[in-house]
Amino acid sequence: MKTPEEYLESLKRDTIVYIMGEKVKEFWNHPLVKPSLNAVMKIYELAQISEYQPLMTAVSNLIGERINRFTHIHQSVDDLIKKVQMQRLVGQKTGTCFQRCVGFDAANTLYSVTYEMDKKYGTSYFERFTNYWKEVQQKDLMVAGSMTDPKGDRSKRPTQQTDKDMYLRVVEENEEGIVVRGAKIHQTGYLSSHRTIVMPTMALRSGEEAYAVSFGVDTNEKGMTLVMGRQASDTRKMEENIIDTGNYKYGGHEVFVIFNDVFIPSENVFMNGQIEFSGELVNRFAGLHRQSYGGCKPGKGDVLIGATALISQINGVPNVSHIKDKIIEMNLLNETLFACGVACSALGFQREAGNYEMDMLLANVTKQHVTRAPYEISRLAEDIAGGIICTMPSYADFNSEEVGHLLKKYLNTSDEVSVEDRYKIIRFIENFTMGASSLAYKTESLHGAGSPQAQRIMIGRQANVEEKIGFVKEILDLN
Ligand code: SF4
Ligand code: FE
Fold it and tell me: What mean pLDDT do residues 93-122 have?
């Protein structure tokens, strides 16, 4: 397994990314990217510490060695539960998106889907995929996952779009491989990743075979254009006083990735035209990623609850009954998300390929709750922290010779707590609930792993209402 430093060194490759109108070559030195790399380095660091190894590592079924769990193919229900426990742990240590779950979930999806495709069509996708993934495990690579296409006019299918590139597709094919064109947007942790696994964005139909494509590719492959996404208050990371950033050590990022005729050698292609499996691939990935949220969001929630409890102490109100009750409510909501994450893992099952997958209905229930609870938890955090979270002067003023002493005097609450600590926590809560970190905690909770309606459709499909009607009929002797 790589040390955090080895990981960082290994990312220093020939890459170009556009960030706020600038062409950046050494993205690893850019203030908007560094916090993301710090968050991923934390994963590599925790895997090196013996106390965390039961959660952070596993023994690979592919190479027989101890690997980082983020590259593991789940071999049991216990692995599924440890996955969400690990995500909660890393959330607690970073308070942000640590970006390594998407590729992890994509790998566990492709493991079973490629196996089943080979069984049906006699293809060799499973062998290609496992060879590709063995290398990921051996080199302890960070892998992103690329699903979301721009989609153009939502009322039209991919082939009906005026611009056929609105969904990523194969534009050329020969014996050596395929050439793909299109874009994948909202790419979490793309710059922090060595590779990505590209997948179709939805179930495809006859005539849409060119869009049923999945493959592995380096994130700096020739023909890709990378444009970094903006986040609320992101430029605070570029200011001299990074304290105003809130979570000034850790953060996540998203990239808008355009594939301008990128060549993919056959050995890295894991699906090409198998429309019948495209829907299943999307569902399994969505299920695994919805399970992920039952770990990562409670981990981040723990940090926000901690910050809120701390500010209540600093403000001298920790024993006021409504404050105590609001913190209980935050914990109730947060633990509900975790309970859902553990439950869908505990009811996991084995796929034909031998790997384990979470319960689909409960994973969708998990994610649907995730679309709501972080908003309420954030509202309570803002309630307790007070209006100061959106009116406090800058850290530069806080430390200025002319007005700093005045701000410190009037922002002080108790002689036992430094006013500096109060300043940092207020900024942290601001960042978490409405700044750059709110992306990973709120909007990402809403739209990541599929927008709310996508889970409701799956709950509708999976919840067996006919069976429930049968229960009441039996009790009441109805026909
Ligand atoms: Fe992982 Fe959560 Fe970030 Fe998604 S939002 S990549 S599940 S930490
Ligand atoms: Fe996500």
Answer: 98
244 within domain boundaries: no
| Domain enclosing residue 337, as ranges | 280-470
Dist. CA 224–CA 257, nearest whole Å: 7
Atom of ligand 1 at shortest range from CA of 444: 5
Q: How confident is the model at residue 414 (pLDDT cuts 50, 70, 90)?
A: confident
pLDDT tens digits, 429-456: 999 999 999 999 999 999 999 999 999 9
Which residues share a beta bridge with 16?
A: none
Task: Tell me the best of 100, 188, 442, 444 to mutate to test the pocket of ligand 1, counting ligand atoms within 8 Å of each CB and taking the most.
Answer: 188
**99 close to ligand 1 (CB < 6 Angstrom):** yes
**Phi-psi group of 408: left, alpha or beta (phi > 0 → left; psi -120 to 50 → alpha; rest → beta):** alpha
pLDDT band at 415 (very low <50, low <70, confident <90, very high): confident
Active site residue 391: no
Atom of ligand 1 nearest to the CA of 98: 8
Q: Ligand 1 in contact with 193 (CB < 6 A)?
A: no
Please indicate, yes or no, if residue 352 is contained in any of the structural domains: yes
CATH of the domain at 378: 1.20.140.10
User: What is the torsional sign of CA 292, 296, 302, 304?
Assistant: negative
- For residue 50, give every residue at least 6 positions away whose Cβ sits within 8 Å of its Cβ, in sequence order, or none: none
Is 30 noted as a catalytic residue in this protein? no
Backbone φ, ψ for residue 8 (5° rounding): -60, -45
pLDDT digits (tens, 9 = 90+) for 316-367: 999 999 999 999 999 999 999 999 999 999 999 999 999 999 999 999 999 9
188 classed as catalytic = yes
152: left (phi over 0), alpha (psi -120 to 50) or beta: left
Q: Which ligand is nearest to the CA of 102?
A: 1
Q: Per the structure, how many domains does the chain have?
A: 1
Q: 97 an active-site residue? A: yes
pLDDT digits (tens, 9 = 90+) for 221-267: 999 999 999 999 999 999 999 999 999 999 999 999 999 999 999 99
Q: 7, 125, 293, 395: which is the annotated catalytic residue?
A: 293
Of 101, 245, 366, 395, catalytic: 101
Instruction: Output the CA 8–ligand 1 centroid distance in Å.
Output: 20
Q: Within a domain: residue 457?
A: yes
pTM: 0.97
Q: Considering every ligand atom, which ligand is closest to the CA of 95? A: 1
Residue 101 Cβ inside 6 Å of ligand 1? The answer reads: yes
